[in-house]
Specification:
Length: 167
Amino acid sequence: MRISAHGLAVDLPTGWEGRIRRQPLPVEAGCADTPKFRSHAMLHAADFPLPDERGDFGSGAVETMRSHHAFIALVEYGSGSAGTALFASGGMPRELRTDEFSGRQLQRTLRGQGGVQRFFVEEGRAFCLYVVLGSMADRGRVVPRVNAVLSAISISAALPPEWLEAM
């Protein structure tokens, strides 16, 4: 299944589901009640059912994972981040090694789970790739499936600001 939006696309293997969205910003005082959107796109993919309500880095989803499951978040940051030291790495990692995962890299530590977090710039856009495994013990079986999804993600250049305002 292919999903595509906001300059992100992925061909998901059978058994995976995903969503791409932009986060709504709170309406500022004095503004119309129409929701405004930031240009920061977010892709979530998992080999288990994704709940409708979940945080940027998977809160609400990772708690439901089983040992053989994986969750991927690709979260875009503002264009000013692209020139900073944190985002100095060029290009999204398309292949992760099992020894890169650790319980210490999780946004929220959950027993047995492991994660990896990488910051990078691709097509002039700054991102954080965050991957959670349901079990460190099963990472040898799960990481190759994660890598298959990572290799199927494409990122295109950001839209000009005037196009975003019209959306």
